[in-house]
Amino acid sequence: MNRLLTYILISFLVITVIPVSAQIDKILKPVEINPPHPSAPYEQPGQTDEQLAAQYFRERDYEKAVILYEKLYETKNNSLYYTYFLYCLIQLEDYKKAEQLVKK
Fold first, then answer.
1. What are the residue boundaries of the structural domains of the chain, listed by start?
2. Per-residue DSSP letters for 24-65?
3. pLDDT tens digits, residue range 1-54?
4. 68, 66, 30: which is closest to 48 by C-alpha?
């Protein structure tokens, strides 16, 4: 009888604990702090601000990209532009402006 209870208990633990630990791994998975690189063609005449900002971001020219992403975020209030704008501010070490943006 003791062996049967032990077997049932071990089986129960194996069945319930393993799936729970897998779910915890998914929940606690590290968050990506670098936004994905936007895809846009290289600079061409008549290029939009979105395309130009994406190009500057890809080239890591954050000083130029931050200006365009700020303008895009203020006009369109899109979460994607917010992410890129914030990332550019952090890369430029403009923490004061980044903090103000986050507090909005």
1. 49-103
2. HHHHTPPPP-SPPPPP-PPP-TT--HHHHHHHHHHTT-HHHH
3. 666 656 565 655 445 544 544 554 555 455 455 555 665 545 556 678 899 999
4. 68
Q: At what angle do helices 79-91 and 95-103 cross, to 10 degrees?
A: 160
Rounded Cα–Cα distance for residues 35 and 101 (Å) = 17
Cα angle 53, 85, 27 (rounded to 5 degrees) comes to 120
pLDDT in tens, 60-76: 999 999 999 999 999 98
**Buried b vs exposed e over 59-86: b needs ≥16 C-beta within 10 Å?**
eeebeebbbbbbebbeeeeeeebbebbb
